Amino acid sequence: MGTTLRDAKYVLETILGCEREEGGNHTKYVLRVNGRVVALTFYSRSWRESTQIDSTILSQQSKQMKCSNALWKKLLARQASRVDYFQELLRYGHISDEEYTLLCK
Fold first, then answer.
1. How many whole angstroms from its chain centre is CA 91?
2. What are the pLDDT digits (tens) for 53-71?
3. Tell me, what's the pLDDT at 50?
4. Closest by Cα among 14, 45, 43, 47 to 29
5. How far apart are CA 55 and CA 33, in angstroms?
6. Which residues lie closer than 8 Å to 39 by C-beta, 6 or more apart?
7. Phi-psi region for residue 66, left (φ > 0), alpha (ψ -120 to 50) or beta?
8. What single string gives the DSSP state of each residue in the chain?
9. Which tens digit of pLDDT belongs to each residue from 11-38?
């Protein structure tokens, strides 16, 4: 069984705390820290909850969310935590130590 839109929405909204924005043909999820956009990703509004997300789109989403493809897939499979994600953002300089502490409370 592959990754579905339902999986992605759960991770983006519940685990990572991204804000959903509707508009045009796509739904956008934005991760903001202290008002600054750290990461964002999109999906087509025509997709349904059970829509399977192919590996090309998963790769694009991982780049947009500024994490490795391996970590993104683990997050979607619920084999990684928000702390794992924010540790990777910190390691690659996308967030500061203070932001990491704030996000991992």
1. 17
2. 889 999 999 999 999 999 9
3. 74
4. 43
5. 28
6. 18, 30, 31, 64, 65, 66, 67, 89, 94
7. left
8. ---BHHHHHHIIIIIS-PEEEEETTEEEEEEEETTEEEEEEEEETT--TTPBPPHHHHHHHHHHTTS-HHHHHHHHTT-S-HHHHHHHHHHTTSS-HHHHHHHT-
9. 999 999 999 998 777 889 999 999 999 9
Tally of residues, the chain: 105
pLDDT of 1 higher than 60: no
Q: Read off the tokens for 15.
A: 């685990």
Instruction: Supply 40's token pair.
Output: 């964002």
- The answer to whether 79 and 85 have CB atoms below 8 angstroms apart is no
The token pair at 98 is 């203070």
